[in-house]
Amino acid sequence: MAILQTTVMTIRPTEEIKKELLSDKQPMRNFPKSLTFPFDKLYTEITTQIRTVEISSECILFDSVEASNETKSFSDIDYWAENYTDKEISKFLVFAQNGQGDLWLLDIENKIYFYDHNLEQMCFENFIDLNLSFEKWLQFADLNSQFDDIYETEDGINDKHKTEYKKKLAELSGNLLKNYPFEI
Length: 184
Hints:
By secondary structure, this protein is an alpha+beta fold. It has one domain: SMI1/KNR4-like, CATH 3.40.1580. Helix content is 38%, strand content 14%. The protein has seven helices and six strands. It is globular.
């Protein structure tokens, strides 16, 4: 009798994910002093000690240097809709992207937003609030990695996996499931 193997997705503790990310620890690279942003402690602990890393297909976490450079480009007022000030723009940090060039943004209150590059114009209306902190985003990225693994090993995603994934997204944040920016 064959044993049916089932893949179970889990929301792992942030400390486990952090430990895994820091397993290939790099020399400390701090953010430039010119970048005045109230960084989340966990975010700083990780991104100053790693190189940019693909956690999942939808979550490429920038190291501190790349985040700083991306934020500088992002802050160019010419990319923004009219009437936005430097002060309003500086409330956001580009900390990650996905494989299609969409951006993950962190604001000064440690809230995560998603920006779809197809929307072109930078403006608050084009940022999707997923009701995640950086800590929850790490858990989402890890969960998304598990979803990627299922896709790779099982040559696709069945309805059972989709349902399980949606339940896990809802556990992380009801807003995440409601405003999920990708097709499941």
